[in-house]
TrEMBL record, chain A:
Protein name: ABC transporter ATP-binding protein
Top-rank taxon: Bacteria
GO molecular function, one term: ATP binding
Organism: Flavobacterium cerinum
ABC transporter domain residues: 2-231
Keywords: ATP-binding, Nucleotide-binding, Transport
PANTHER family the UniProt entry points to: ABC TRANSPORTER ATP-BINDING PROTEIN ALBC-RELATED
CDD domains (UniProt xref): ABC_DR_subfamily_A
Gene3D superfamilies found in the cross-reference section: P-loop containing nucleotide triphosphate hydrolases
UniProtKB/TrEMBL annotation, chain B:
Keyword Transmembrane helix belongs to the record: yes
InterPro entries for the chain: DUF5687 (IPR043742)
Organism classification: Bacteria, Pseudomonadati, Bacteroidota, Flavobacteriia, Flavobacteriales
Membrane-crossing residue ranges in chain numbering: 21-51, 63-81, 102-128, 140-159, 166-184, 196-220, 275-293, 305-326, 347-369, 375-399, 420-440, 446-462
This protein's UniProt keywords: Membrane, Transmembrane, Transmembrane helix
Pfam families to which the protein is assigned, alphabetical: DUF5687
Protein name per Swiss-Prot or TrEMBL: Uncharacterized protein
Amino acid sequence: MIKVSNLRKTYNGVTVLNIGNLEIPQGESFGLVGNNGAGKTTFFSLLLDLIEPSAGHITTNNIQVNKSEGWKPFTAAFLDESFLISYLTPEEYFYFIGELRGQNKADVDALLLKHEDFFNGEILNKKKYLRDLSKGNQKKVGIIATLIGNPKVIILDEPFANLDPTTQFRLKKIIKDLADDKNVTILVSSHDLAHTIEVSNRIVAMHKGEIVKDIKTSSETLKELEEFFAV
Amino acid sequence: MFWKFIRLEWKSFTRASSFGANVVMKIFMIIGAVYFGALFLALGFGSFYIIKENMAQDPLVVVSKYALYYMVFDLLMRLFLQKIPVINIRPLLTLPIKRSMIVNFALGKTALSFFNILHAFFFIPFSIMLLINDYNPVTVILWHLGMMALIYCNNFLCVLMNSKDWMFVVLIVLLAGMGISQYYNLFDITNYTSVFYYGLYTTYYMFIIPIALLAGLWYVSYQFFYKNLYLDTGLKGKNEIAETQDYTWLNKFGTLGTFLKNDIKLIRRNKRSKMTIFMSVMFLFYGLLFMTGSIEMYDNSYMKIFAAIFVTGGFMFTFGQFVPSWDSAYYSLMMSQNIQYREYISAKWWLVVIGTAISALLASFYLYFGLDTYLIILAGAVYNIGFNSHLVLLGGAYIKTPIDLASSKQAFGDKKAFNIQGLLLTLPKLVLPIVLFLLGNLISPMAGYGFVAGAGILGFAFRNKVFSMIEKVYKTEKYKTLAAYKQKN
């Protein structure tokens, strides 16, 4: 589904990302781990064509992302709060995204109903704009919005951060359910090794812009990663 | 401790991204400050002679008479422009600093504002002129103290009123009411207030009133801040009750409707964008200066064309110019969603066109000044819709200033919004219609207006071509724009 070849990103002569070759097949649940500055967000931003690669390219479904916009209809992402429209209510935001993805109000409502317990009664019909929600609740909105319109590629940057334990648990279930769907490729990054291992069937560890580990998840994975990151 | 605060302030001033970003802008800011300083200075020295020779009246009496307007107008401008620094004291709350110190610092900081110092540029030279011209030196100084105390009263009034948006309207109505009733000799409020203002000079005790008022206001502001120095009261932003609005009637326009819905919400729910509506209304009345023939210099047909562009173009200039910056806070969402640039641009174009059309309708009160006048305005509207709307959107594509929607204060002083491309694109917006009119005027004035409107219709015909151009700019500038929007102040 996603092919990365000789991708490099340099800022003022400093290389922040350098991936020689990486393939993510369709249906994979892909976990990206690494310390601050490892290049996780940079990689996701390149994947979404939000920054320009210094060299190399990424193709999604054989579409080169920085040449054509054809990847947009089947890709959904939530990287940070700049993916939220602060002056809308959560409902309006969901419908807005829904309309852009060709979903009608009923489709969106059905999806929201399905994830009612994820919202924990704190999001819908609260008469609040997104800007007035707490960080954690904003994140919930952003995550569920990526599910609208059954995208084939879902990209979530640090989805577990700022969430309360119950919601983290529920989120893991949502991601695992998506991972079971063989049409959906899901990419998740996190600082939290345990969470990532739980939801991903493949883990890639990055360090200073390079891929340092690429492993299929097994019972040994956590130990292996912990050894790597322990200094 | 105060010294540390001041060092902190200095750093926040010199390291602000808007300050460091642009050398040209820095120069313009300095020139602006010097200009206003010089203007007031000249006014301070000059007004004495101007009043004395042209009006053959005692300058001090005249200044005291109109001091009320001066003060109310000053308060109005402050509410509009002066920033009250409350947010940046948040990090200080948990540090071992006395609350009274924090409050005093925050209040003291407002006292140093340019809005206070500016008036010294007028009152000090004016008082010097009074002293030179043998007015009683003691009472001149008392008058001066009284006036400056009143200016500082305004400063604290602004602090107290800052969160109340309706005060702004109240003051405008008050100012307009006083002005109109005085102009038509209905009721002259200055007859009563000048007793007080002039009394500051004629008596030895009157100056105590403003000083006491200032002390009182300072105390009230101090108490107000002190009591509200909590994250969930005074330092909190307003939490409005949100209503979900559907605007289902826009659904029949497809994706265009989706964007329009969003833009209407954008305008209605954010301070900064609400200002554009306010400004559009102001622009609507701007034409009165030209169309009523009250100012001789403006009373000719090409200046009227100039005015017509402004009367109907207020919304276009204040909103359209900053497309796509209005969406800067969530631009990465827009760029990764399933959005065609063409649809996005044409939605904004329609919004600008609707805004212009509404302005043209509202401007129908110019019919009072004759059908001719309204025809000029309509010609301007057609030109705006057909021609300027494209230029505005094209110019906006180059403006990479993130807009902070929550703040209304940038509306005027948006320093970074200034760039060369934007300036170059202003010329055809304003100068070209005048040139066109002058060309047509060689035949007859009507032909002149026809030329202007014709250019608009012609521009409309080339709409798709222009949209493609804008689209191209959006595409080539995409990464730069995204990076620029990431930088917040």
